From TrEMBL:
GO terms for molecular function: ATP binding; protein serine/threonine kinase activity. Residues 418-441 are annotated as: Disordered. Keywords: ATP-binding, Kinase, Nucleotide-binding, Serine/threonine-protein kinase, Transferase. InterPro entries: NEK_Ser/Thr_kinase_NIMA, Prot_kinase_dom, Protein_kinase_ATP_BS, Ser/Thr_kinase_AS. Pfam families: Pkinase. It comes from Paramecium octaurelia. Its EC number is 2.7.11.1. Belongs to the protein kinase superfamily. NEK Ser/Thr protein kinase family. NIMA subfamily. ATP binds at K35. This is non-specific serine/threonine protein kinase.
Amino acid sequence: MSLKDFKIISKLGEGAYSTVYKVKRIEDNSDYALKKVNLTNLSDKEKQNALNEVRILASIKNPYIISYKEAFIDVNSNSLCIVMELADNGDLLQQIQKCAKSNTTMSENDILKITFQIASGLKALHDLKIFHRDLKSANVFLQSNGDVKLGDMNVSKVAKKGLLYTQTGTPYYASPEVWKDLPYDQKSDIWSLGCVTYEMAALKPPFRAEDMEGLYKKVIRGLYPKLPSQYSQDLQNVIRMMLQVQTNLRPTSYALTELPYFNRFKTHAIDDQSKLLNTIIFPKNQISIANMLPKANYNNSKFKTESNQHSDTQETIQRNRQTTLGAGSHQSSPNPTRISQYLAEQEMLLKQQYSVNYAGKNKKTHNYSDRNVIAKILLEYQKEVPIYKQIKQRNRRLSQEETPYLYQRRIGQLPALEEHSPNQKRNHRNQSMPTSNLPII
């Protein structure tokens, strides 16, 4: 994969070392966000942060977090390219600024809904001991259907021991423990979420000052102006819970999503299949990094044909065989205990073949528990399985016949040894010397 496979539509944003573009993938004609990180002038730590973002994005599969699609190295520009899901309605900061400019406000229902979805995304991160560390309104992305997705994992980090010590983040959203250079945990993200929720209602951050020292004093005291009177006490209670100076008084992301204020937003169960991938270490040889990046994850099922579906079925069967029999096994196991696996494989093939041959309005139902079908599968199983018992018996018989012959042949090739009595003095001279009397010189 390279940049030639994408068409750049527009620039979405630009940072110190990276630029985000809206691109169209030529293969499926779909729009994505492509983050291009220039590796030329980056330090080793900054390069590792870029790979860490790839790792975390590829690990998380949650509807409220920007999903990973692909990552590759563009050799011509010496850049790491990260292809991600595109949020087609901007970010939350733009929405807040738009409301402030037009002198309008966000509805309380929308504020609570966005807060719940961000908390659900944080829960997916915290379950894997990942701290976002830079949660702010500019990193919450909006979709046209009203949902939000959490993004920008550039400074996110896995806390192996439960606490982090590196101070990072945006000052307006940083927690008191971060300001004090103290160790912090997942509750620091909860404080940042409280700042974002307050900002949606008041259209400005809860803690503001003219300089950093004044901002520091306000944050560690935890005092902020009241919300406009149009918002209910419930919303103020939610914000007050998150903006507690003492970390033990703040709720976890899970406890936050279980509050009764958010019950009306739990319309469906969240399908979370997140699994933390191994750490990607930036290699000295930059060319070898391509083999270390996670695999592409586009999942565009609408572009699959019947032949692709059939090949996917074959690949699934092959993966199951390799998992059960070991890598490199291309044949069914001759072990009769694997018959259940074989039946499952054949049943999958029959279902695939039947759905292709009989697809249409009058699609018939097929009873796979029919004895005739099972007998057919067993017959195919017997044809494919080699007669390993006969081969084993023949090998055993040959080994038994050859063993005495080989033993006698080895014994016959050994040199003859002379026996000596215990009292007989042995001649330690070189045996190659003649035994007759030597002439006296």
